[in-house]
Each structure stands twice: as C-alpha cells, then as structure tokens.
Design goal:
Elements: E1 4-8, H1 13-24, E2 31-36, H2 39-52, E3 57-62, H3 68-81, E4 87-90, E5 98-100, H4 102-109, H5 114-120, E6 125-127, H6 138-153, H7 155-158, E7 165-170, H8 193-212, E8 217-223, H9 230-233, H10 241-254, H11 265-268, H12 270-276, E9 287-293, E10 299-305, H13 310-333, H14 336-351
Parallel strand pairs: 1-2, 1-4, 2-3, 4-7, 7-8, 8-9
Antiparallel strand pairs: 5-6, 9-10
Helix pairs in contact: 3-6, 6-8, 8-13
C-alpha cells in the first residue's frame, strides 16, 4: 500500500534526519512531501535525499506556518496532489531572539538543577517574540496555530472511513505548564513563548484525540531531547564554532548520567521514526514519546506522562476554533489584489529554483 507522509520543517535538523530514516526503512511506494518555508533550502534537502535514494518519491511544498494565507494555499495544493494523507509530522518550529541568562547559568552549574537546566533550558532561556503580518504572535503562529489550521484544512485527507492517520508533533522538554496561560494563549505578556507554544501543543494533541479518534485520526507528541541543531546554536549566536566543538566532550560526559542528551538530529528523530511503525490505537494520548540515547550511544524511545489535563486541553481547543473563525473571516475580507501579489511572489521564488 502506498503511504503519503508530509513533514513540516523538513529541510534541516530533525526534520531532514527523519526524512532520511523514512526513506531508508524501505517502504515501497512511500510518497514523501517536504513542507518548508524556504524553497531553496527545501530543494537542497530534496537533492540530498535523492542522492541517497534516487528512486524515492520526494515532493516539495511551500509552507510557512506563521502565515495564514500560506497554510491555506499549501493545504489546497496538498488536496490537489493526494487523495489521502497517512502521516502528518508537525515539526516546524522557531525560537526567535533567545536571551541567555549567563548569571543563572553559572549558578545552575553548581546546583542540583544542572541536568534539567542543560537539558531543557529552564531558568536560563527567554525569548523576544515578534508579530506576524496576520497580527498573531510569531512563535504561537509558527509552532502551534499554523499547524492547527493545517490539520483543519487537511481533514478530508486525514479522516477516511476504514483508514487510520497519524499526527505526530515535535514538542520539547521545555514545555512547562508554568509558561502557559489560557487567558493569554499567544503569550503576549510573557517572556517564554517557546515553552508556552510547546506546552500548548501537548494540550492540543490530547484534545485532537478526543475529537478525532472516532474518525480514525490519532495524535502523538514527541520530544527529541537535547540536539545540536541551528536552533541550539542560535541560543548563543556569538559563540564561535570552535567553542561548540570544545563543549561536545562535556556533553558526551553528561550523557553518561542522563539519557536526554541525544545530541545529533539522527538520534533526536528516534521517537518520530518509532511512532511511524506503531499502531496508533495502542498509543497513550497522555504520554510524550521521548527520543533517548544511552551513554553507549544506543537510541530508544520511552513514553513519559505529560503534565496535562482534559479540561484545559478542551478549553484551548475551543479557543483555537474561535481564533480560526476570526482569521478566516479576515482572510475572506483580504483584497484580491493582495492575494494575487502574494501568490505571484511565491511563484517567482519557486521558478527561480529551476
């Protein structure tokens, strides 16, 4: 049976590592779609994948989850290309303008909280959020709401009689209840929008299971662990490359006492890939599936209960539905000329690749 898999944020890091593993596991007829914001990087990623797997079916899709119009257009394109969607990996995410608290970091080094601090960034990381052209908080729109709208748009492909489909989120151990507020789901008044958005994705996954399981759609949440990706490097952008090289032996030593230091995108994608091989009916909607790596370098997946509850997840879901209604109304009122101009700009970007 042909399988259709769409991965957001697939051009680098954990997303690209996942795509490589999906193609390497040998499923015949697998149709893989890389949904990316930057089409030049997406084309480069596709070339890398086809170099290793020349007969693979790898398509590209322009998708910017921070843009409502981009999500709607991308979903329309997906519905034209495919008649089903078996796996939707909700992996795209940002942590813009991270601020590193050096004082808190060095205090943490000499405390009992050193491991969770290094593994999750708790207590030492804040971010300065921006606002999108749609008037939404950028982290909320990119990490959560854009994906929620994409799911809603793709319901006809995800919900089929006699077929199961999976939503698989890339969350984080940085997802903390303390950073999230139902009265401020976009985190306009806080300094931890990344943590808030990831906790919200944990809540939303539970609500999606409540509303969609009877239609054959299941949602799961993963944590990649501490992975060295561009997002990690941007936490300390002023650090020269050799400093990160010097830190790697320290990270390897830490991994002897904690299994959350996966370090590489390949290791970090372990839970995402593991879920690809599971029957969704057997999964726990209250669990986050963690990518873990032992001190000897062995990868495995382990479920851990999330700090979430059904009542809060339902409240978030209803709030997101209301916001969806509002943004759709604004989109309908958008001048046709502006929509055409936006579309032409995307067409030019894509044409320049060929």
């Amino acid at each position: 049976m042909n399988l259709v898999v769409l991965v957001t944020g697939a051009n680098s890091g954990i997303g690209l590592a996942l795509c490589e593993r999906l193609l390497s596991q040998g499923t015949r007829g697998l149709q893989l779609c890389l949904a990316c914001r930057n089409m030049r990087r997406a084309e480069a990623a596709r070339s890398v994948l086809l170099t290793s797997h020349p007969t693979a079916q790898v398509a590209l899709l322009h998708l910017d989850t921070s843009s409502i119009s981009s999500v709607v257009r991308a979903a329309q394109e997906v519905r034209l290309r495919y008649d089903r969607l078996d796996y939707l990996y909700l992996n795209a995410g940002i942590m813009p303008n991270p601020q590193f608290d050096v004082t808190a970091f060095f205090k943490g080094l000499f405390s009992s909280k050193i491991i969770p601090m290094l593994a999750t960034g708790v207590g030492i990381l804040t971010q300065k959020d921006g606002v999108t052209s749609d008037g939404l908080q950028e982290v909320f729109a990119t990490n959560l709401f854009g994906h929620f709208l994409l799911i809603r748009e793709l319901e006809p492909l995800l919900c089929h009689a006699g077929q199961t489909s999976q939503l698989i989120w890339t969350s984080s151990s940085n997802a903390h209840r303390s950073a999230f507020n139902l009265e401020d789901i976009q985190h306009q008044r806080g300094s931890q929008p990344y943590s808030s958005s990831k906790y919200a994705s944990d809540l939303l996954s539970l609500a999606l299971n409540t509303h969609y399981n009877k239609q054959g759609l299941y949602s799961s949440v993963t944590c990649p662990g501490f992975v060295m990706t561009s997002l990690t490097y941007n936490i300390l952008p002023s650090f020269p490359a050799f400093v990160w090289t010097l830190l790697m032996p320290v990270f390897w030593l830490i991994r002897l006492v904690t299994n959350t230091f996966t370090l590489t995108p390949q290791n970090g994608s372990e839970a995402l890939f593991w879920l690809f091989k599971q029957k969704p009916e057997s999964l726990d909607p209250y669990a986050k599936y963690h990518s873990l790596t032992s001190g000897l370098g062995n990868n495995y997946t382990q479920p851990r209960k999330m700090d979430i509850d059904l009542e809060t997840s339902e409240s978030l879901y209803e709030t997101l539905l209301q916001l969806e209604s509002e943004v759709r109304k604004k989109l309908r009122e958008q001048p046709q000329e502006a929509i055409l101009q936006d579309l032409n700009g995307i067409d030019r970007d894509y044409t320049a690749l060929h």
